[in-house]
Structures are given as structure tokens and as C-alpha cells.
């Protein structure tokens, strides 16, 4: 097996006397979609926060392509190749959908977040942004102000911004939460497309077992902040202890 693109070693965070993430060590390969599951309060989102730099770790390290990024800020980790959907939510809430996406395209090209420089001479960036909006079914809303979007369309815009960022590691924290039955498949199809490229690492926090069964190459289970299981979906989901203690009725319902 090749070296992991992303790795955590004994990653830990304490809030007072509470250990929210307890010495979690995991490596994540390129081309692999890993679902992170567990009961509410298990530490899933906190683990994401530690990887993306939203909160500092009490102990342990995060490595990207073998380089220690534990001391880096959110922005530096993003530039290094870690993309998390919610980090980009409402990046510019008073600008339009198209302006939001094309600013990320421009930043990715190395020209920075300068809205006015895009007013002319950047047709190729507008075209690239519109192509992404076609993928997420938001082209018709391209001139709508972001703050006026429905919740479902805001979630789709998160994915659009993440695609524009083109990170090595995609992190999705319950990407379909709050979306309607009609809206959710668009986001899930986009995640499936990213997975099909087989050159990106994808981490997915999700409660819906049917989604996990469809998309995941691997499942890790967190419980009380600790790593409780790690393996192929069929193996992990068939485990009695995981079903009873960590999935509960959600898995029984599937």
C-alpha cells in the first residue's frame, strides 16, 4: 500500500476534563472514500475540526503528503490541499452565486481574491465557474445573491466552491443535511463523480446508512472520541458490537 495522502497520529483534544477526540490514528489513501460514523457526540465533527484546523489539538499530529501540518492555520491547510465544504459556506454572502465561485477559481489560479480585477479580461474564469455551476445544478441561480438562496442551494454551492478549490482531500460533513428529497441526489451524485476520478481522498461524515453503503470504500467508527472500528463497509456494518452500540436503530432500519 502506498503512503497515505492524509494521516492523523494520536490526534487528541480535551475540553476541560472531557476528551472529545482520544488518540485517533488513521491514514487515508488517494482514491478512497472513507465514511466516518458513530452516535451523536462520538467526536466525528470534532475530528474533522482538528484535521481542517478549526480547533487546535491538545496532542497528536496531522500529516498531509507526509508533511506535518499540525501547527498550520485553516487557510494554510486549505492552500496545502485540504478542502472542507462548510469552511466555504457564505464566503461572500452579499455577492452572487457566480461571483462566489469565480472568486475561488481566481484564487486557485494564483491571482487572489480581487473581485474588481475580474470585471474584465477574465472570461475564462467566468466560463470555468459557470461549468461548475452546471455540475451542481445552480446555473439558473448564478445571478442570485448567496444570502437569498434556499438551504438546499446553499449546500450545493458549498460543493461548487469545494470543486473550484480542487483540493487533494475533500471533507464532507453531512452534506445532505436539511436538503429535500429532490435536492440531495445532486450532491450525492457529485460526491460519486469525485470518487470515480480515483485521484482524490474523500472523508464523509454521514448518518444515512444507505448513503454510506453506496459510496464508502471504508468505514471508521468513533465512539466517545476513540476509534472503535475500521474496515470494509460490509465487515464494519456486520459487526454486532458496532450495530448495537454505535449504529443503534439507524442501522436496524436499513
Automatic annotation (TrEMBL):
Keywords: ATP-binding, Nucleotide-binding, Transport. One of its GO terms (molecular function) is ATP binding. SMART domains: AAA. The keyword Calcium does not apply. Residues 6-249 form the ABC transporter domain. Gene3D superfamilies: P-loop containing nucleotide triphosphate hydrolases (3.40.50.300). Pfam families: ABC_tran. One of its GO terms (cellular component) is plasma membrane. This is ABC transporter ATP-binding protein. It comes from Antarcticimicrobium luteum. The lineage of its organism: Bacteria, Pseudomonadati, Pseudomonadota, Alphaproteobacteria, Rhodobacterales.
Amino acid at each position: 500500500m502506498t503512503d497515505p495522502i492524509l494521516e492523523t497520529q494520536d490526534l487528541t483534544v480535551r475540553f476541560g476534563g472531557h476528551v472529545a477526540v482520544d488518540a485517533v490514528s488513521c491514514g487515508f489513501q488517494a482514491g478512497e472514500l472513507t465514511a466516518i460514523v458513530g452516535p451523536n457526540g462520538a467526536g466525528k465533527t470534532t475530528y474533522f475540526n482538528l484535521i481542517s484546523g478549526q480547533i487546535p489539538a491538545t496532542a497528536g499530529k496531522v500529516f498531509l503528503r507526509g508533511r506535518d501540518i499540525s501547527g498550520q492555520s485553516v487557510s494554510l491547510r486549505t492552500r496545502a490541499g485540504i478542502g472542507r465544504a462548510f469552511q466555504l459556506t457564505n464566503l461572500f454572502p452579499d455577492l452572487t452565486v457566480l461571483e462566489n465561485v469565480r472568486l475561488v477559481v481566481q484564487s486557485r489560479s494564483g491571482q487572489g481574491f480581487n473581485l474588481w480585477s475580474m470585471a474584465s479580461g477574465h472570461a475564462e474564469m467566468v466560463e470555468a465557474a459557470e461549468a461548475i455551476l452546471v455540475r451542481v445544478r445552480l446555473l439558473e441561480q448564478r445571478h442570485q445573491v448567496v444570502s437569498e438562496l434556499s438551504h438546499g442551494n446553499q449546500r450545493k454551492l458549498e460543493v461548487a466552491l469545494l470543486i473550484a478549490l480542487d483540493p487533494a482531500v475533500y471533507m464532507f460533513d453531512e452534506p445532505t443535511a436539511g436538503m429535500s428529497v429532490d435536492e440531495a441526489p445532486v450532491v450525492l451524485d457529485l460526491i460519486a463523480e469525485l470518487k470515480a476520478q480515483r485521484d482524490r481522498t474523500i472523508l464523509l461524515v454521514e448518518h444515512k446508512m444507505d448513503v454510506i453503503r453506496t459510496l464508502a470504500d471504508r468505514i471508521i467508527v468513533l465512539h466517545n472520541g476513540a476509534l472503535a472500528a475500521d474496515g470494509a463497509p460490509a465487515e464494519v456494518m456486520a459487526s454486532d458490537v458496532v450495530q448495537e452500540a454505535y449504529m443503534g436503530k439507524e442501522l436496524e432500519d436499513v
